[in-house]
């Protein structure tokens, strides 16, 4: 991957990496305007009479990678929008006992909105050292910018208000819909964890992410997670018979468990 400096300072664009957007870093206190001004190319135009500027900004979700996997050397892993797309599909499969109690249409929208702020904030993980209040501040400012500054006419502005309200509902995590989507967020992570491990044929242990299953709150979604983790145990059990593969217990260190517990406590 080309570094941000290579992409912004080189006299020629890095064609090979046009599908990858590095996290924009700014000096001093984090501020939306600083980030927007540092984005290569023209800054999005605010106050227009169409949502075109918003559409352009959303593209960054397609090209910004989920950072947790990159720590393990997975450079061409899923993007933020990859993650949210599968979440929206998963949300359609609410078991009958849950589906009759929730607004599935809102859940699908919430899946596609909940990480929207990461297009400017980036995917901040528990190991990045950014306190939760600061992470929340950055995301809230970004959602203000996206839903208030990029819509000019009243009809589009109403859609922006709806997007912001759904994002707020997810962040508050008080409604059944938001709790369901929080669980789906973790379920999608567990699925991707195992899929990367299987693709690596036992050469990659992502067991630290299995921890999120303990933070799921709904009986129906916990059942999915339990089934997946049983599948994972069988996979690693079979790999133990292969030379050079030690297997994995899916646990995490006490220090990392505490860090993750603090990070996911709001969920």
Automatic annotation (TrEMBL):
Keywords on record: Cobalt, Hydrolase, Magnesium, Metal-binding
UniProt subunit comment: Homodimer.
GO molecular function (one): 5'-deoxynucleotidase activity
Known role: Catalyzes the dephosphorylation of the nucleoside 5'-monophosphates deoxyadenosine monophosphate (dAMP), deoxycytidine monophosphate (dCMP), deoxyguanosine monophosphate (dGMP) and deoxythymidine monophosphate (dTMP).
Protein name: 5'-deoxynucleotidase
Family: Belongs to the HDDC2 family.
Domain HD/PDEase: 76-199
Cofactors required: Co(2+); Mn(2+); Mg(2+)
Record-linked PANTHER family: 5'-DEOXYNUCLEOTIDASE HDDC2 (PTHR11845:SF13)
Coiled coil: none
Organism: Pochonia chlamydosporia 170
Pfam families: HD_3
């Amino acid at each position: 991957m080309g570094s941000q400096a290579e992409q912004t300072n080189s006299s020629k664009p890095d064609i090979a990496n046009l599908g990858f957007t590095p996290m924009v870093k700014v000096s001093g206190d984090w501020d939306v305007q600083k980030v927007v001004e540092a984005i290569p190319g023209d800054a999005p135009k605010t106050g227009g009479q169409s949502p075109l500027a918003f559409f352009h900004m959303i593209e960054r979700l397609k090209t910004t990678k989920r950072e947790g996997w990159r720590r393990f050397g997975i450079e061409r892993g899923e993007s933020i929008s990859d993650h949210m797309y599968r979440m929206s599909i998963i949300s359609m499969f609410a078991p009958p006992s849950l589906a009759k109690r929730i607004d599935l249409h809102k859940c699908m929208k919430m899946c596609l909105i909940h990480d929207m702020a990461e297009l400017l904030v980036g995917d901040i993980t528990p190991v990045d050292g950014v306190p939760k209040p600061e992470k929340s501040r950055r995301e809230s400012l970004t959602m203000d910018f996206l839903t208030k500054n990029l819509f000019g006419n009243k009809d589009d502005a109403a859609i922006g208000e709806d997007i912001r309200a759904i994002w707020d509902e997810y962040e508050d995590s008080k409604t059944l819909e938001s709790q369901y989507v929080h669980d789906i967020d973790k379920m999608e992570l567990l699925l991707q964890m195992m899929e990367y491990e299987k693709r690596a044929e036992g050469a990659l242990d992502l067991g630290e992410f299995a921890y999120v299953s303990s933070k799921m709150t709904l009986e129906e979604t916990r059942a999915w997670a339990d089934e997946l983790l049983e599948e994972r145990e069988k996979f690693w059990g079979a790999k133990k018979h292969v030379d050079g593969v030690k297997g994995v217990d899916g646990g995490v260190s006490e220090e990392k468990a505490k860090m993750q517990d603090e990070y996911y406590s709001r969920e």
